[in-house]
Amino acid sequence: MSMPMYVAPEQLMKDRADFARKGIARGRSVAVSRYADGIVFVAENRSTLHKISEVYDRIGFAAVGRYNEFEQLRVLGIRQADLRGYSYDRADVTGIGLANMYAQLLGSIFSSGGDKPYEVELAVAEVGDSPGADVIYRLSYDGSVTDEPTFAIMGGSAESVSKAIIPDWRPDLPLATAVKLLVKGLTPPADPAADTPAPVLAPEALEAAVLDRTRASHRKFRRLTAPVLAELLGSSS
Predict the structure, then answer these.
(1) Exposed site from 29, 40, 103, 229, fewest CB < 10 Å?
(2) SS3 (DSSP) at 223
(3) Are 23 and 66 in contact (CB under 8 A)?
(4) How far apart are CA 168 and CA 124, in angstroms?
(5) Name one Pfam family in it (predicted).
(6) Who wins on pLDDT, 25 or 214?
(7) Domains in the chain, ordered, with CATH?
C-alpha cells in the first residue's frame, strides 16, 4: 500500500494562493470608486459577458477572474438578497451581509483540501443616503475582506492602476471626472520600445455602471451605455 506524499500545510496554502493569483492576474482590471453622488464601476470589457451587475436595490457587484465562477457567485448573491428581502424587509439586505456570505464561501473553498480555490476577486458596494454611508468591500480568493475607504482595483495590473489614480482621486469628484480618472488608470501604458501611439480605451471597449443615490427609484443601479460614456469622457470636468 503506497503512502500519500506529505505536503506541509504552509506549502499547500502557498501553492493554492499562487494558483488563484495567477488566474486572477490574467483578467483585465476592474475599478470601483466613490464619487460625489454614489459609487461608480468601470472595467475594460469588450464582450457581452458582464463583469459588473446589480445585486439588489442599493447594492452592486463587480468581479474579475474565471467567468463561470464569479457568475455563480453573482447569481447566489442575488438569490440570497431576494430571499432575505422577501422574508424580512428590503432594508435588511445589506452590503456587509452579502460580503460576509461571500467571505465564508470563498474561505471554505480555499481551505478545503479537495476543490481547487476559486480564481476570482470580488467587490460588493452599497450606496447610502449620504456619502458617509457608502461602502465598498473587496473580497479575495481566500475569503479575506477589505473595507475600502476610497476605491478598489481588482485583477490585471491592479497596482499600476492604483498608482495612476491616487494622485487625482477625491471623494467629491463629479461623475464625469471620476469616470475619466478610472479610465485613465485602466488604460495600458504606451510601450516606449514600440513606435506606436499610446493606446486609448474607447467607450465601446468599456463596461460601466453607477449606484446613484440621487435616483428617485428605490433601485439605484444604472448602466452607463457607450453613448453616455462618450458624453462623460468628452465633457469637461
Answers:
(1) 103
(2) strand
(3) yes
(4) 24
(5) Proteasome
(6) 214
(7) 39-187+199-233 (3.60.20.10)
